[in-house]
């Protein structure tokens, strides 16, 4: 569904302003390459928060608390 929405928006942009649509098509891989390290950083930070949460919950889990899954 996301791809269909993107394609429809791009085709609409192509009809309204074709140079802008071509520029967006050419710059999309560059934007993806710029965003890739930020996604990896976000995954690493999420992992660190999960580790800190697990360390804080360790005493309770050792005493038998399971939490909501």
From TrEMBL:
Keyword terms of this UniProt record: Membrane, Transmembrane, Transmembrane helix
Entry's transmembrane regions: 43-63
Transmembrane recorded as keyword: yes
Protein name: DUF4175 domain-containing protein
Native source species: Solimonas terrae
